[in-house]
Predict the structure.
Amino acid sequence: MLPAIFFGHGNPMNALMTNAYTEAWRRIGEETPRPRAILSISAHWFVPGTFLTANERPETIHDFGGFPQPLFEMKYPAPGDVDLAKRIVSMLGNWQPALRSDWGLDHGTWSVLCHLYPHAYHPVVQLSIDRRLSPAEHFAIGSALTPLREQGVLIMGSGNITHNLRHAMASFRSGDRTTPSWANDFDAEVARAIEQHDWDQLARAVETDTGRMAHPTLDHYLPLLYAAGAAGDHDSVDFPITGFDGGSLSMRSVIFG
């Protein structure tokens, strides 16, 4: 039974860096049983619909701008797994999923995996986040994916528990890395809900004033609900990474199971 893991991926430059976050990702990769394949739910495939990548060789997508050229030159040449993608389409029939070959692995996936599994041996499939669905529905999709954990598939969500990009960019420009109270409070509230397996609270957390400040848009929060949904009520919970990047970006990671 493989765990389900949520990663706070933060700045795309983490792909090129060696720091406390990337070293922790490396250790998680070493300590987690080797998966047969990886299913990634990234904040950066946030579209109207539920889709699975169906590429034999998924493209490395550089879905950002304004970064140094070496980041655009980086490749993560993991194979795809079309059979796994087709199986997940069958599992998620209630959400009318479809296969897509015009997407690949975006930086929410590869900026973590390049440290987690640097040799890129394991097949990777990405699942989109349907922006039309409620948080509770995203959690339900995660629950429907739970059987994959028994089949050697590592389910990983990649986003950030707090992600107010305007505030983070202002912090990077000014050099002020002070963590605001709303970021600390929301991160702690979400951690408590996870520890208590309070899934209803986890889905509702973004409806508060603090939640809306932490997530002006929900794209970076929803991957957490997929990982939590794939977890059972009796799964252990571990926070191998905590802390904030750029002042307000929570880098908290969660291992379920």
The first helix runs from residue 20 to 31. The domain at 4-160+217-244 is CATH 3.40.830.10 (Protocatechuate 4,5-dioxygenase; Chain B).
